[in-house]
Amino acid sequence: MAMLIRTILNEMIPQQMQNFISSKFFDLASRCLSSDFTFIIEERWQAVNNETFRAVEAYLPTRIGPSTDSLLIGSHEPLNPKSPPKQSIPVDCKIIDEFQGMRLEWTLRSIESKNYFPREKRYFRLSCKKSNRDRVMQSYFPHITRTAESILNKRDTLNIYTYDQESSMWESTVFKHPATFETLAMEPELKQSVMEDLDSFVTRKDFFEGVGRAWKRGYLLYGPPGTGKSSLVAAIANYLRYNIYDLQVQSARSDSDLRHILTSTTNRSILLIEDIDCSTKVAHDRAKIQDDQEDDDDQQPNRLPSTDPGVTLSGLLNFLDGLWSSCGDERIIIFTTNHKEKLDPALLRPGRMDVHVYMGYCSAAGFRKLAANYLGIKDHSSFATIENLLENVTVTPAEVAQQLMKSDEPEAVLQSFTQFLHMKRNEIQKQDGKQES
């Protein structure tokens, strides 16, 4: 009878309908018989990086134990080969965690996306008992977030990211720049004001939410080449323990591409755009560009109008303080330039670039800091002569550092540096004499 019924059903019901009914039946049976529940934590969430994924990624290496079946290890300290390797979680590795009597099983998975630009798509699977589902949501995930925040605040290594246009993703490497606020050859008052501004920024989350502003801060570092703008960026990163995303604006093909690039950065990070005046025409003063174009058109009336596809000024401004600026928290945005006067005023106003820091030529205080760093001395009989010369000679901190690195003997170095300053002063006097004549 059963065989007869099955034959009749096979004749009367199409195969696709049979498969649909079978799948629904097995799904119902598995839900009724299985006592497990699975959470999926993907790397991306609603067009931005998933902060829960990032927290789990920081938390799980602390739960590696005897039950862990595989490990990913590596080292990024070539100068210290005896240092123990770092531990990480490889794909398909299972980690068992115990929390408040619950047994929780983690697995990292990876699949290849089939988009125009193929890339790895990672996600975590968390299995627990169905009866523990609410406790996991209410207690376990907040515990992971708190633990991960503590780990990230104390991390001993930072990363610097650069955007790979071909793969459409950020590539990272370990960031180990020795610059700190202690070693910077800046005016003490300026250095202190920057540090106080950073301290105020990281502790004012409630203030930014209360006034309805995105939790971010914009810095413009400007001044001649070699005055320490990049060193200040490194010092800020080391001070806050923030990763750096170094963006070349030319990497973005359009405004939408720029939004994708910027929203794929993480919270508690620095977005760095160096030499913004050279990176793209959109940053230049539009009034000056229009005047230059009119002059070119007068000289070449038959020239076709140029097209400049790519990022527009409005696209860049929209991320700085428009609707897209709210996609992320606790971010520092830093522009550097050698020519502030070339930038469009729209980039410079508060809310986009909140703090303008002029990195100037080496002063007496800057020289003393460099002498302490490179020579290990805080005072010398030749300091007065050198400081008097610095009042009439413009040299960058990079030039001073180069002179102080010539020898390990302070006497010889200071004598050579004094001669260097005298030579520069004589060149300036000669140039002034030629101009007067």
Automatic annotation (TrEMBL):
Q: Where is this region: Disordered?
A: 288-309
**Any Pfam family the entry gives:** AAA
Query: Which residues are in the AAA+ ATPase domain?
Result: 215-363
Q: Which InterPro entries match?
A: AAA+_ATPase, AAA_N_dom, At3g28540-like_C, ATPase_AAA_core, ATPase_AAA_CS, Mitochondrial_chaperone_BCS1, P-loop_NTPase
Q: Which GO terms describe its biological process?
A: response to stress
Catalysed reactions, as listed in the record: ATP + H2O = ADP + phosphate + H(+)
Q: Which keywords does the record carry?
A: ATP-binding, Hydrolase, Magnesium, Nucleotide-binding
- GO molecular function annotation: ATP binding; ATP hydrolysis activity
Which cofactors are required for activity? Mg(2+)
Tell me its family. Belongs to the AAA ATPase family. BCS1 subfamily.
Descriptive protein name: AAA+ ATPase domain-containing protein
User: What organism is the protein native to?
Assistant: Corchorus capsularis
